[in-house]
Each structure stands twice: as C-alpha cells, then as structure tokens.
Design a protein that fits this description.
By secondary structure, the protein is mainly alpha-helical. It is built from one helix and no strands. The protein has one helix spanning about 5-34. The N and C termini lie far apart (about 50 Å). GO terms for molecular function: cellulase activity. It comes from Klebsiella pneumoniae.
Amino acid sequence: MPLRALVAVIVTTVVMLVPRAWADTAWERYKAVL
C-alpha cells in the first residue's frame, strides 16, 4: 500500500472516531452534572 493511501486511511479513521469520542465524553459530563 502506498504511503499516501495509508495516510489517507489513517486521517479518515481519526476524523470519524474523534467526533464520536468527543460526543461520548460530553454526554458523560452532561449526565454527571445532572
């Protein structure tokens, strides 16, 4: 696999996972406040 393709896959994975992790963290904080 070319390096450029590997970087593209990694970037795509990070972009998909980061918002989900951030939303889960925000939801846990929200429940903790309540």
